[in-house]
Amino acid sequence: MRFEGKDLCTLMTCTPYGINSHRLLVQGERIEDMPLTTPEPVERFGADEYVLLAALFTAVIMAILITIVVLVKRHRERKDEEEAVEGSVANKPSL
User: Is the distance from CB of 45 to CB of 56 less than 8 angstroms?
Assistant: First the structure.
């Protein structure tokens, strides 16, 4: 069907898929081109930033673990020294 002054397009398709027992007609009218607008870029982390964050996180965790190990070791050494001093005083003969 033609309409004067309109730029129409008709699409004929078959349905259901594989059976094709029914026909569908879809009609559309051409419109003027809309101006394209470029969306603002969204700042997102790239792969490099994720690697940097993972390395920083790992370094912080390792620093905390090393600090805990050093503090526990010092505490045990001091405790052993105190026990050694107490043991030497206890074993010292009295006059």
Answer: no
